[in-house]
Specification:
The termini are far apart. The chain has about 160 residues and is α+β, with helices and mostly antiparallel strands. Helix content is about 35%, strand content about 20%. It has a five-stranded antiparallel beta sheet.
Length: about 160
């Protein structure tokens, strides 16, 4: 199933995004390429380095969750759209993956050296507002990333990527 918002835009691999919208295959490689492209794009031109790092970190966590857990290895697509404020820190992520269970969206960090499970707590800690809804068979995640108070050390994305 394709959504109207996504099919109107063009993939960044085919010449850019219309209105800031980007549609990518639901793969780790495509997510990495998108984040690298977004770091250089006009969408984030007005942000400080810390704000850009924080925004990219939140987007990386959310997009990788869609790839790993939503689609779970199945083929699919992910659309990334600037939010209505177009501040460079507010974004919408739309996909047709499995619905996100409520239990996954808790700010609880796993204990005991557990691998994984840090994505949602990290997303919630670095955002002012997060809203997840399911409409027309699509997941729609709205994110408003914190500004200067984000607290991500400068250059953290280079170490994570």
């Amino acid at each position: 199933m394709a959504c109207r918002w996504c099919t109107e835009g063009r993939s960044p691999r085919r010449g850019g995004a219309r209105g800031g919208r980007r549609v990518i295959p639901a793969t780790a490689r495509a997510v990495r390429g998108l984040l690298e492209e977004m770091e250089r794009a006009q969408d984030m031109a007005g942000l400080t380095q810390d704000e850009r790092d924080c925004t990219l970190l939140v987007l990386a966590e959310a997009l990788n969750n869609v790839v790993q857990h939503g689609y779970g290895g199945r083929a699919g697509w992910i659309a990334v759209l600037p939010g209505p404020g177009r501040t460079g820190r507010d974004w919408r992520i739309v996909d047709a993956a499995a619905p996100v269970p409520e239990t996954c969206r808790r700010p609880v960090v796993p204990g005991g050296g557990s691998e994984g499970g840090f994505g949602w707590p990290l997303i919630l800690a670095l955002t002012r507002h997060v809203a997840m809804r399911r409409r027309w068979g699509l997941n729609i995640l709205s994110l408003d990333v914190r500004g200067e108070e984000c607290g991500v050390p400068s250059g953290v994305m280079a170490k994570i990527a």
